[in-house]
Please model this.
Amino acid sequence: MDPFKKQKLFTGHDGAIYALSEGASPNRFYAGGADTLVTEWDLNDVVEPRVIAKATAIVYALNYVRDQNLLLIGESKGGIHAIDLDASKEIKFLVRDIAPIFDIKYSAKHNRFYSVSGDGHFSTWSLENLALVETVKLCDKKVRALDINPSGDQIAIACGDASIRIFNLESGKEIRRIPGHEGSVYSVKFSPDGKYLLSGAHDAHLNVWEIESDYKLIHSVPGHNYSIYSIVFSPDTKHFATGSRDKTLKIWDANTFEVIQRLDKEKSDGHKNSVNKLLLMEYQDLLISCGDYRSIIVWKALTLDPSPTLPALRFGRLEGEGN
Model:
């Protein structure tokens, strides 16, 4: 039995959708894209989204800061909008340069957020006063993605020069440079148990790096037919999902690194064009994907192990476990 099934289709954006973020409640999430709109979606209502903000350019990055009910929006002209969701207004517009902001991640441990841009920069911002702390030029090509490890002390950066950079967030210094792929790296993701870093790139390969062995490459496989744009893990570290320019999503076994299920247009009524971003709604066993065809698809995680003598393993947790 296939572990995932299409549950809902959301339409409402007038252009490609590039960014997704969790929302303030378990049934809500945010989306943004080429039409410059940032929308809030209710999983219980497939009719109309609520428009949160209208950016001044294409929206490439979203990050919800739960501690302050703040939404950070990165756009193609280099700006970051900080939206106070309690007051429903923008409280600051941050600009370092005119290069696109491709990703934003927040660290509660350091009360800072981090961004990467199309001119090769990695920037650190203070959440307390919404100001730039430091910016570092990593390469002469686009820097696409970030991820912070579970302990909150390291950040991985996907670079256009085919490398992955690891920074210590306490010192702000680069501690490791990994020659990652053949071509631009588009996605990086730490496993929830902190043992592995996964990366996907223009070369369509999925690479697995063992952290305790100084980021040693332990597995590499052609994961898709084209670039891998997004990776998300299940919280129990047993499975992960990838999204690609080849219009498909894949569900993987995190122990064997083998594909469990392929979600495409023909067999799964999936995306017609590139899959740009994935979001895991862990408390509802839902996987959300967005792409170039102005659509958002909600996938329901069904029982992966149907054996009646064992607990039913779900994408987010064991069925019957608490949140």
